[in-house]
């Protein structure tokens, strides 16, 4: 028999319901924080694993910490509208904010030491939708899963164990292809001479509702000048920033956006595997870099180039990386923006 709303039995039932809701919320929090399963990979652990031996550079991105911001345009030629109804593929010109960067957590790394270079882009469309992408110049990623990426960071940090990387490579043979690229690919003289690749795959949907799984690349208009190891050292620790600022100061710099369409059976969930060369490729338009912007306090500072920020007409695929990256970039963003006092700010005299 039900008690009256204000009866003692009804009050006890209300308290039980409240206690159950609170317990469920606490359990959800504890699970999300990873306290129930210390072995589970969390975004915070992934980001912690990237820290150099002396700790992270406070106020900076926890990876790709060194970089230089720019603004420009994406001139769409309309070609990729057959693949995706995203507004940025309708012929026209769209504003871009982007960043050239080095794949290292060391904000003071020498340009001659960073094997992997990156290009990050954000395009805002007139309908308010947005596309963000963070690409690298390697043609493949070193590992097949976010878990393996975490284990790779741990192996790299084990300076006390000479076998750590050997054991990692034995358990993750896919890293061999990346190693071969890193050991043999030329080092170019400029961010403007590199090709940048999404490596992760995404699903494009066109106006008829047809889905295709794709990857994309930005292919430079200028011919690369390859540097020898000696030439590279002679250029100095910060030659890439000086070079790109000088080039963009002289004339806009351009890359073609090429979209590659997967065939059935291609490894869409594994960025350590290239797709065969003969896959259908569609030119979507041209990235035009028009102005170098200040890195401290410039338009990139409070931007997180989260690869899951996608307009209607694009979505993530079965590739597990974009979701893991989104969560890790958010942790990095929250940490670095909370460390504002450690970040070099631009003053009347320049960066301090
Ligand atoms: C699970 C794997 C990965 C982790 C944990 C990771 C982690 C990070 C973190 C923490 C940042 C700094 C984010 C910020 O503070 O805004 C970052 C930036 C970046 N990452 Fe990754 N990353 C991963 C995979 C990749 C892949 C697959 C690519 C390229 C194909 C990539 C390219 C970049 C680039 C270009 C940036 C610089 C973005 C910027 O300019 O803000 N990352 N990454």
TrEMBL record:
<dbReference type="GO" id="GO:0042744">
    <property type="term" value="P:hydrogen peroxide catabolic process"/>
</dbReference>
<dbReference type="GO" id="GO:0042542">
    <property type="term" value="P:response to hydrogen peroxide"/>
</dbReference>
<dbReference type="GO" id="GO:0046872">
    <property type="term" value="F:metal ion binding"/>
</dbReference>
<dbReference type="GO" id="GO:0020037">
    <property type="term" value="F:heme binding"/>
</dbReference>
<feature type="domain" description="Catalase core">
    <location>
        <begin position="19"/>
        <end position="352"/>
    </location>
</feature>
<dbReference type="GO" id="GO:0004096">
    <property type="term" value="F:catalase activity"/>
</dbReference>
<keyword id="KW-0408">Iron</keyword>
<keyword id="KW-0575">Peroxidase</keyword>
<dbReference type="GO" id="GO:0005737">
    <property type="term" value="C:cytoplasm"/>
</dbReference>
<keyword id="KW-0812">Transmembrane</keyword>
<feature type="active site">
    <location>
        <position position="64"/>
    </location>
</feature>
<dbReference type="InterPro" id="IPR018028">
    <property type="entry name" value="Catalase"/>
</dbReference>
<keyword id="KW-0560">Oxidoreductase</keyword>
<protein>
    <recommendedName>
        <fullName>Catalase-related peroxidase</fullName>
        <ecNumber>1.11.1.-</ecNumber>
    </recommendedName>
</protein>
<keyword id="KW-0479">Metal-binding</keyword>
<keyword id="KW-0472">Membrane</keyword>
<feature type="transmembrane region" description="Helical">
    <location>
        <begin position="12"/>
        <end position="36"/>
    </location>
</feature>
<comment type="similarity">
    <text>Belongs to the catalase family.</text>
</comment>
<keyword id="KW-1133">Transmembrane helix</keyword>
<feature type="binding site" description="axial binding residue">
    <location>
        <position position="329"/>
    </location>
    <ligand>
        <name>heme</name>
    </ligand>
</feature>
<dbReference type="InterPro" id="IPR020835">
    <property type="entry name" value="Catalase_sf"/>
</dbReference>
<comment type="function">
    <text>Decomposes hydrogen peroxide into water and oxygen; serves to protect cells from the toxic effects of hydrogen peroxide.</text>
</comment>
<comment type="function">
    <text>Has an organic peroxide-dependent peroxidase activity.</text>
</comment>
<dbReference type="InterPro" id="IPR011614">
    <property type="entry name" value="Catalase_core"/>
</dbReference>
<dbReference type="Pfam" id="PF00199">
    <property type="entry name" value="Catalase"/>
</dbReference>
<keyword id="KW-0349">Heme</keyword>
<dbReference type="InterPro" id="IPR024168">
    <property type="entry name" value="Catalase_SrpA-type_pred"/>
</dbReference>
């Amino acid at each position: 028999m039900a008690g009256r709303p204000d009866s003692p039995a009804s009050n006890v039932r209300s308290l039980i319901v409240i206690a159950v809701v609170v317990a469920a919320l606490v359990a959800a929090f504890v699970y999300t924080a990873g306290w129930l399963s210390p072995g589970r990979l969390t975004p915070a652990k992934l980001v912690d694993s990237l820290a150099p031996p002396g700790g992270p550079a406070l106020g900076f991105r926890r990876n790709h910490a060194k970089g230089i911001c720019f603004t420009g345009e994406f001139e769409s030629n309309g070609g990729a509208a057959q693949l995706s109804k995203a507004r940025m593929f309708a012929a026209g010109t769209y504003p871009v904010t982007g960043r050239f960067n080095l794949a290292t957590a060391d904000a003071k790394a020498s340009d001659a030491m960073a094997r992997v270079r990156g290009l990050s882009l954000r395009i805002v469309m007139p309908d308010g939708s947005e596309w963000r992408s963070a690409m690298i110049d390697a043609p493949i990623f070193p590992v097949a899963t976010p878990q393996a990426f975490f284990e790779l960071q741990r192996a790299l940090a084990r300076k006390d164990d000479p076998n750590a990387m050997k054991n990692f490579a034995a358990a993750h043979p896919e890293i061999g292809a990346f190693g071969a690229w890193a050991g043999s690919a030329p080092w170019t003289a400029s961010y403007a001479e590199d090709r940048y690749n999404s490596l992760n795959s995404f699903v494009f949907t066109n106006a008829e509702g047809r889905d295709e799984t794709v990857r994309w690349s930005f292919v430079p208009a200028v011919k690369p000048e390859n540097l020898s190891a000696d030439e590279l050292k002679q250029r100095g620790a910060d030659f890439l920033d000086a070079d790109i600022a000088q080039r963009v100061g002289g004339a806009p710099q351009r890359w073609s956006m090429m979209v590659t369409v997967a065939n059935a059976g291609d490894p869409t969930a594994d960025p350590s595997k290239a797709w065969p060369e003969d896959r259908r490729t569609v030119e979507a338009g041209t990235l035009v870099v028009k102005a170098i912007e200040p890195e401290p306090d410039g338009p990139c500072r409070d931007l997180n180039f989260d690869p899951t920020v996608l307009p209607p007409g694009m979505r993530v695929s079965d590739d597990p990386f974009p979701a893991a990256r989104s969560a890790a970039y958010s942790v990095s963003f929250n940490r670095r923006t909370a460390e504002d006092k450690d970040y070099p700010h631009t003053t009347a005299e320049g960066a301090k």
